[in-house]
Specification:
Blueprint (H helix, E strand, L loop, with lengths): L13 E16 L10 E19 L4 E5 L19 H12 L8 E7 L10 H16 L6 H8 L6 H6 L2 E5 L4 E4 L6 E6 L7 H13 L14 H9 L2 H7 L1 E2 L2 H7 L3 H10 L4 E4 L6 E5 L2 H15 L4 E5 L5 E2 L1
Parallel strand pairs: 1-8, 3-4
Antiparallel strand pairs: 1-2, 1-12, 2-4, 2-5, 5-6, 7-10, 7-11, 9-10
Helix pairs in contact: 1-2, 2-3, 5-8, 6-7
The structure holds 4-diphosphocytidyl-2-C-methyl-D-erythritol 2-phosphate and adenosine-5'-diphosphate.
Adenosine-5'-diphosphate binds next to α1 and α2.
Organism: Micrococcus aloeverae
EC number: 2.7.1.148
Catalytic activity: 4-CDP-2-C-methyl-D-erythritol + ATP = 4-CDP-2-C-methyl-D-erythritol 2-phosphate + ADP + H(+)
Length: 322
C-alpha cells in the first residue's frame, strides 16, 4: 500500500530505521516475582535479521501502523496485529505520552517490514518497537541519544532496550538492565524458524509448572550471568561458545513443541557444534564453526526438513537511521 492509498501526503516528512532481532546465548531464569515477571540473567546477541520501520508524519494527530509498501517482509505477518496492540504503535504512543508531546502536531503512520519470524523467540516485535521509538524520536526532533531511548524503551518489553543498543550485552532484571559485552565478531549461526509460534508468557508458565512438579530444579532468585559464554565471546571461540550456552526456557519450549527435538538432533547430525532453542522459542539456533560451515549447515537442514534455515551472524549494530 502506498502513502497515497492511505490518504497520507506523499511529500510528508519520513524517517526509516533498521533494528535487529536477537538470540539469547544464555538465558537463566529465576522464580516469578509478585508482578509475574521472572528475574533473568541473559546474554543477548543481535543478529543480521533486521526489521525496518518508516515513520511518516501525519497531519491529523493519529498514530497508525501497517505493513510496508516500500520494503518487503520476508516472513509470514498473518499473526501481526496492525492496530494499537502492535509494538511499533505502542512505542510511538509511549514516546509521545512520556514526553508530553502535543498529540495534534505529533501524528505518525508507521510502516513495518519484517525479516524476523513472528512469535519465534527472536524479539521481532521488540525490534519493531525499538525502530519505531528511534524513528519517531528523529521525526519529532526530541534530541534523545540512543542510550536515553534504551532507557525509555524498558516499559515496552524486556527485550526492547537491547534492540535499541544492539551488539552483545548482558541483560539482568527482567532483561532490560543492560551491560554491553565486547564480543569479537563474528559468531556464525543457523536459525531454523518453526511454522507456528509459541507464546512467551506460556513458555515462562510452563517452566514454573515443571519446576513446581519437580521435573526441573528451581532456579535461584537472582540468576547468575553465564561467565563461560562471556569468555567464549571475547575469545571468539565457536566451540567454547557452543559448549557454554544454556537456556532455561528450552525444556518448556520442547515440552510445548515436541517436534523441536527431532530438528535439534538433525542439526547436530549435519555438523552443528551445538543446537539450542532461541529465547522462548520455537526458533532453533545452531552454532557453526565459520561462515562456510553455516551456509553448508543451512542447506543440509533445508534439504532434510523442507524448512527454511537462515544463516546469520552477530553481533550487529542496534537501531539506526537508514
Ligand atoms: C523470553 C525473552 C528472552 O529474551 O524473549 P523472547 O525469546 O520471547 O523474544 C524475554 O525474556 C521476553 O521478552 P519480551 O518478549 O520483550 O517480553 P515482555 O513483552 O516484557 O513480556 C511478555 C511476557 O513474558 C513474561 N516474562 C517476560 C520477561 C521476563 N523477564 N519474565 C517474564 O515472565 C511475562 O509473562 C510477560 O507478560
Ligand atoms: N510488530 C509486531 N511484530 C510481531 N508481533 C507483534 C508485533 N506487535 C505485536 N505483536 C504480537 O506479539 C507476539 C510476539 O511477537 P514477537 O516479538 O514476534 O515474538 P517473540 O516475543 O517470541 O520474540 C505476536 O504473536 C503478536 O501477536
Amino acid at each position: 500500500m502506498t502513502t497515497e492509498d492511505l490518504g497520507l501526503d506523499p511529500t510528508a516528512r519520513h524517517v526509516t530505521v533498521s533494528a535487529p532481532g536477537k538470540v539469547n546465548l544464555s538465558l537463566r531464569v529465576g522464580p516469578p516475582g509478585a508482578d509475574g515477571y521472572h528475574p533473568v540473567a541473559t546474554v543477548y546477541l543481535a543478529v543480521s535479521l533486521r526489521e525496518t520501520v518508516t515513520a511518516i508524519a501525519r497531519a491529523d494527530g493519529r498514530i497508525t501502523v501497517g505493513p510496508s509498501g516500500r520494503h518487503i517482509s520476508l516472513v509470514d505477518t498473518e499473526d501481526v496485529p496492525w492496530d494499537e496492540r502492535n509494538l511499533a504503535h505502542r512505542a510511538a504512543a509511549h514516546l509521545r505520552h512520556t514526553l508530553g508531546l502535543d498529540p495534534d502536531s505529533h501524528g505518525v503512520h508507521l510502516e513495518v517490514a519484517k525479516q524476523v519470524p513472528v512469535a519465534g523467540g527472536m524479539g521481532g516485535g521488540s525490534a519493531d518497537a525499538a525502530a519505531a521509538l528511534l524513528a519517531c524520536s528523529v521525526l519529532w526532533e526530541t534530541g534523545h541519544t540512543r542510550a536515553e531511548l534504551a532507557e525509555l524503551a524498558a516499559p515496552l518489553g524486556a527485550d526492547v532496550p537491547f534492540s535499541v543498543l544492539g551488539g552483545a550485552a548482558v541483560g539482568l532484571g527482567t532483561g532490560a538492565e543492560l551491560t554491553p559485552v565486547a564480543a569479537r565478531t563474528p559468531v556464525h549461526l543457523v536459525l531454523v524458524p518453526a511454522d507456528a509460534g509459541l507464546s512467551t508468557p506460556v513458555v515462562f508458565q510452563t517452566l514454573d509448572e515443571l519446576r513446581r512438579e519437580g521435573h526441573l530444579t528451581d532456579g535461584p532468585t537472582r540468576p547468575e550471568v553465564n561467565e563461560a559464554v562471556l569468555r567464549a565471546l571475547t575469545a571468539a571461540d565457536p566451540l567454547e561458545l557452543a559448549t557454554a550456552m544454556d537456556n532455561d526456557l528450552q525444556t518448556p519450549a520442547v515440552v510445548l513443541f515436541p517436534e523441536l527435538s527431532d530438528v535439534l538432533d538433525l542439526g547436530l547430525d549435519e555438523g552443528a557444534l551445538r543446537g539450542m532453542v532461541s529465547g522462548s522459542g520455537p526458533t532453533l539456533l545452531f552454532v557453526a564453526q565459520d561462515e562456510a560451515s553455516a551456509l553448508r549447515l543451512a542447506s543440509a537442514i533445508e534439504e532434510r526438513t523442507g524448512v527454511r534455515a537462515l544463516p546469520v551472524h552477530g553481533p550487529v549494530p542496534g537501531a539506526h537511521v537508514l
